[in-house]
Amino acid sequence: MATARTLQLDSVCPATRTLVEHVTSKWGVLVLIALADRPAMRWSELKREIPGVSEKMLIQTLQTLEADGLVLRTAHPVVPPHVEYSLTEPGREAHDLLAPLVRWAYDRATR
Amino acid sequence: MATARTLQLDSVCPATRTLVEHVTSKWGVLVLIALADRPAMRWSELKREIPGVSEKMLIQTLQTLEADGLVLRTAHPVVPPHVEYSLTEPGREAHDLLAPLVRWAYDRATR
DNA sequence: CAGGGTACTCACCTCCGGGTGAGTACCCCA
DNA sequence: TGGGGTACTCACCCGGAGGTGAGTACCCTG
């Protein structure tokens, strides 16, 4: 059943495509990178650290990645809201696979 | 100068972003995969093997990847046109970095 | 008692990746 | 002589990613 081909063309089905799009989206990449070297981050912390994100896109990206099971949202029901985001195990996997590609692109683009 | 962080947030500058977008685009992924296990392919061959590509998107994707230096276009000036496309060395690098990510997404999406 | 921080939602707009369909110039084969 | 294969270009359209700005409800601090 194993083929010579490393990856089949039909592996890139709509569901695969959607996941790849979410993970490699403009802000998806940034969120994964930002969350990768901290156990957890608050929403406002992410907003401050990711250069140029609008509040709308931050929320939207976090919600998408949470729905994909890559990011965990933990809300503490205190009087001034306190929400923390962290990578799940699959989220870390995504980051670890994405990072080399981004680094390669960075090296190429700025050579 | 080295940081604990694997990847800096500002590595994802516009130029990096553009390259990542091209490589992870819907048809960019398919073209890289298709070209990865053959020394060269004709245009019509790519069109036949990549399920669902329109002629416009095939051309457009190939031209973008060629401009990025990831794909080599070789035209033989014969009477019925004969054009071949192949991966350059950077193109192969891109494929090799992309493939694990796509495979991971496929496994997740179809688990 | 006004200003700033917390984590959002809602409405509106723009741009472009991607889709659809037609046209082209040349040749070969039936 | 017309139908199919070769490798394209051109014109038009649509949906969604991404951007902009305002509004919200509550609290603490100066």
UniProtKB/TrEMBL annotation, chains A, B:
Signal peptide as annotated in the record: none
Sequence ranges assigned to domain HTH hxlR-type in this UniProt record: 13-111
PROSITE patterns reported in the protein's UniProt record: HTH_HXLR
Alphabetical list of Pfam families matching this protein: HxlR
Record-linked SUPFAM superfamilies: Winged helix' DNA-binding domain
Gene3D superfamilies attached to this UniProt entry: Winged helix-like DNA-binding domain superfamily/Winged helix DNA-binding domain
Assigned keywords, A-Z: DNA-binding, Transcription, Transcription regulation
Source organism, top-level taxon: Bacteria
Cited InterPro entries: HTH_HxlR, WH-like_DNA-bd_sf, WH_DNA-bd_sf
Protein name: Helix-turn-helix transcriptional regulator
